[in-house]
Amino acid sequence: MKNQKSKSAFSMIEVIFVIVIIGILAAVAIPRLAASRDDAEITTARVMVASISNAVSMERQKKILRGDFNPIFKLSSSSTLGNRIFDGFDGNTSQRVLENPPFSCTLATDTNCWIETASGTVANPNDSRYTYNFPAGIGGSIVFQLNNNRFECVNQNSANCKLLTQ
After folding, report:
1. Beta-bridge partners for 89
2. Backbone angles phi, psi at 144, to 5 degrees
3. What pTM value is reported for the model?
4. Rg of the Cα trace of the chain?
5. CA–CA distance from 47 to each of 27, 79, 166 (Å)?
6. How far apart are CA 120 and CA 56, in angstroms?
7. Distance from CA of residue 81 to its chain's centroid?
8. C-beta separation of 114 from 130 below 8 A
9. What does the DSSP 8-state code read for residue 84?
């Protein structure tokens, strides 16, 4: 008697069947993962808007307690693209708006980032404007203004404003 070794392997049909199932699962999962990424980026922007609003409110209260009734006119030390944004009240980086300020957009057409589009001055503090460019999956942008010591949308009735503030 010869000692025969039995060989077991998958047939070609079994391999093709497994590949088809993996393809179907990938076709279902990938769009859902892409949508959840956009949702996560919007949530990050929403948290940033709330943090900036709270920081402006707290800084205003500190200024009043010090006897300084001048409005806050700026939230960044530089309006140059690619630099830190929201890094200091009235351009003073020792008084940070956010603990870890993000970098602004490198280009004005970048997505999922902020740009200082107008710098406020002591004489005209309501000119300070910041634009958020939404992720590519959502598209568009929204402009926020530092207005009477409040960080708020310029167009408060827009869908993009409601997306980030409600």
Report:
1. 92
2. -110, 150
3. 0.76
4. 26
5. 31, 22, 11
6. 14
7. 16
8. yes
9. B
What are the φ/ψ torsions at residue 102 (nearest 5 degrees)?
Answer: -80, 165
Tokens linked to 116: 């200082």
* Angle (CA) 21 27 32, round 5°: 130
- 53: which 2 tokens? 């609003």
Beta strands 113-118; 129-133: pairing state: antiparallel
Q: Are strands 141-147 and 150-153 parallel, antiparallel or unpaired?
A: antiparallel
Contact 72, 121 (CB under 8 A): no
> Is-contact 84 77, C-beta < 8 A?
yes
pLDDT averaged over 10-residue windows placed end to end, the chain, 166 residues? 66 91 88 77 91 94 92 88 90 89 90 88 79 87 90 90 87
How far apart CA 108 and CA 61 sit, in angstroms, is 33
